[in-house]
Design brief:
Blueprint (H helix, E strand, L loop, with lengths): L1 H6 L25 E5 L7 H12 L5 E5 L10 E5 L2 H11 L3 E2 L2 E2 L1 E4 L5 H6 L6 H33 L7 E4 L12 E5 L7 H8 L5 E7 L4 E6 L2 H11 L9
Antiparallel strand pairs: 1-3, 1-6, 2-3, 4-5, 7-8, 8-10, 9-10
Length: 245
């Protein structure tokens, strides 16, 4: 293991300079770069890079591991191999591999990495890269401010007392599936009723129905689209429904 850790120093660990396109279709041609999604977002970037190297270097020489801290690209990574055969072997063996309680989704990346393009004689426009990084940074800052503002509004307009309930969006089992429009609600008090849930969640556009699981303190809330579900999630997260729990 010590040798593997030392070897990671020879691999370029790009973070913000380069982010390749995520796959949009299943039949992407084999190439040097693998796109990995469904990674546990709580793992710190440096640990993630080291763990990915330790797990994937058995299949061949790794040239680059790309992870970013930006909001929209959390839970994703790109691994660039020295040859396509190594990337293919890694894809076959590691797709579905469970890491930190979540199975990897591994695919070929849709575009070539800068490393491979330069090796093949292409030139990279560094000024364009800089503009892309700045744009991503600004968009990420706007998203963070928007979410912070929504949380403040939530606490001012909906705050009750008691233990806060937890709301998450159900995740699709495969990357090709669309984002989920169903919210999973837990930590509900015993006094919670279907009517109470409907009153809370129906104030948001796209509400369809609430399904309370009696005696379990959990419920499922469905919206027409994942975007509408996301708006409701961001607003009611942490809402305290009753005085007791």
């Amino acid at each position: 293991m010590a040798d593997a850790v030392e070897d990671t120093n020879q691999v370029e660990m790009a973070e913000d300079d380069e982010v390749m396109e995520t796959p949009a279709v299943a039949d992407i041609p084999a190439n040097h770069t693998l796109y990995i999604s469904n990674i546990n977002e709580k793992i710190k970037i440096e640990k993630l890079k080291k763990d990915l190297y330790d797990m994937f270097n058995q299949f061949g020489k790794i040239l680059e591991i790309i992870c970013t801290k930006t909001y929209r690209l959390r839970g994703q990574a790109w691994i660039v191999f020295d040859d396509i055969a190594s990337a293919t072997a890694a894809l076959r063996q590691m797709n579905g591999f469970e890491y930190s309680n979540k199975p990897f989704s591994v695919e070929y990346a849709r575009s070539k990495s800068d490393t491979i393009q330069i090796r093949e004689g292409a030139s990279i426009d560094k000024s364009a890269r800089k503009e892309q990084r700045q744009k991503r940074f600004e968009e990420d800052e706007q998203e963070r401010k928007k979410r912070k503002k929504q949380r403040v509004v939530s606490h001012k307009s909906l705050a009750g007392s008691g233990i806060a309930m937890s709301v998450i969006a159900l995740q699709p089992t495969h990357r090709q599936e669309p984002p989920n429009n169903i919210l999973f609600v837990e930590n509900l008090p015993e006094q919670a009723t279907g009517a109470m849930l409907e009153k809370l969640f129906s104030q948001f556009p796209g509400y369809k129905e609430s399904r309370l699981v009696q005696g379990k303190g959990i419920a499922f809330v469905e919206y027409t689209t994942d975007v509408e579900a996301s708006v409701a999630l961001q607003t009611v997260q942490g809402f305290k429904m009753t005085h007791e729990n």
